[in-house]
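Running log. JK asked me to keep both predictions on one page so they can be read side by side. First protein, sequence followed by its tokens:
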Amino acid sequence: MKFQTYFHPSELEYTGPELSPHFILSRFRVEGSCLAAFHGPCFVKTDHLVDWEDRLQNDHIKAKKMIHFLGEFFGITLREGVWIQRLIVSQILNELVSQGLKATRDGDDIFIEQGGAQKKLTVSIVTASAVSVLLHLGVNIDSTGAPVSAIGLSDFMIDPLALTEKILAWFSSEFESVERATVKVRPV
């Protein structure tokens, strides 16, 4: 089974309501489980945050420009969605480290060391809807306006389009490999 990925060529803003069932279908016309991506600004107000810890602290999310990975997965549990999230974050980390960055992962967040300080590169959340599991993973391109100590890919001259395409291709291949692994074994 080929897993669907989609890159939207035009810039879009992420404000929070995009993390909803069938957004990928209604906006991009891609049906079924999919990992989509687009680039654009991010501004998620407190009332659109899904993370209760952040909502209770009256937080918000903001950056001038991000890579937005938006996933919808049917037929999986929330726990499986979090594993998918962590796997994608780990692969982004691998890509950054391979380019010489001093990057680390803490759960679903990537931090990059700059001037002796750890600066946040990503935001991410996974949640469940009535019909699917939803994921948003934002990677700062330009972190201007972020409410925390943050950094972006532009600070290191990393091509966001190349990174987006690599992650989408890798995820599709990894998903297909996992699917194959589930059907090639004999029961015991």
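And the second, directly underneath as requested:
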Amino acid sequence: MKVSKFMHLHGAIVLTVRPDSTLVETARSFSQPVGGRKLSLAVVCDEAETVKGVVSLGDMSHALANHGEKAASMLTHEIMSTNVMTCSPDDNLEDVLQTMAKSGIRHMPVIENGTLAGLLARRDALEFLYRQASLDVESLSDWLFVSEARY
């Protein structure tokens, strides 16, 4: 299954922040639900929606622990992770999930034509594939074990 199919069926829930936002502004973004969910990771994008990095609640917590009150005036680009692995909508979802598992990451921005198209969350993708497999097994069982077959 392609990443694009998952995104089409599941949605492309993603929180974005700007690299020049203060950590207070970024924290306020995290406090607002996106698609009915509160997220723990934001993709840092410039005005053209080009991915510059990612920032997590954990990154913000570390900044606060390391810099105290000064963290409030720090900018997001000062604490974000810049070595970000990405995928494209044309990538195979299972391959991307294996890459994520091997790399120890839980989220991967989806890039299309150089700009952000969504965010793939490993947990959401795995739950989706599990539900798809369960439905497939149930349908197959119903089809195979129909008791009204004559021969």
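Observation for JK regarding the second prediction: The longest helix spans residues 122-144.
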